[in-house]
Design goal:
There is one protein chain. By secondary structure, the protein is α+β, with helices and mostly antiparallel strands. It has helices at residues 9-62, 64-72, and strands at residues 79-84, 87-97, 104-113, 117-126. It has one domain. The chain has a four-stranded antiparallel sheet, covered by helices on one side.
């Protein structure tokens, strides 16, 4: 019987192939994770901007004169492709729906970024208490 003193060339090549496959899998996993993290962060920023816009509208309606002017106006101009200083890569639109009855108004805040991502948040405002 022959005495084995080392590994054959075939065993070395096979081992290197297995190591390369494992490394490629780990690198692919890291790339996918980094992309998911970036997308999640961008979406979180869009949520923060939408909350800021909603808070601005709520504060606007807390002023009784502003609220009365809003509810008495026959039409409301939509806001299109506006930018906020704290969110330079994001654009927002504000549209007013079903505001003609003077009792309630649905305001839709749409945030866009990266030319393909968007987030829409709807908020119903009512005239209660005026």
């Amino acid at each position: 019987m022959r005495n084995k003193r080392g590994q054959s060339l075939i065993e070395v090549i096979f081992s290197m192939g297995v190591v390369i496959l494992v490394l490629v899998g780990v690198v692919m996993l890291m790339v996918v994770t980094a992309k998911a993290k970036r997308i999640s962060w961008e979406r979180q920023r869009a949520i923060e901007l939408s909350q800021l816009l909603i808070d601005e509208k709520v504060n606007y309606f807390k002023d009784k004169d502003n609220a009365l002017n809003f509810w008495n106006a026959p039409n409301h101009n939509n806001v299109v492709n506006q930018n906020n200083d704290g969110f330079p890569d994001y654009l927002y639109n504000i549209s007013y729906e079903n505001c003609t009855n003077g009792i309630s108004c649905k305001i839709v805040f749409t945030i866009t970024w990266d030319d393909s991502q968007s987030l829409s948040v709807e908020r119903l405002f009512t005239r209660e208490g005026l």
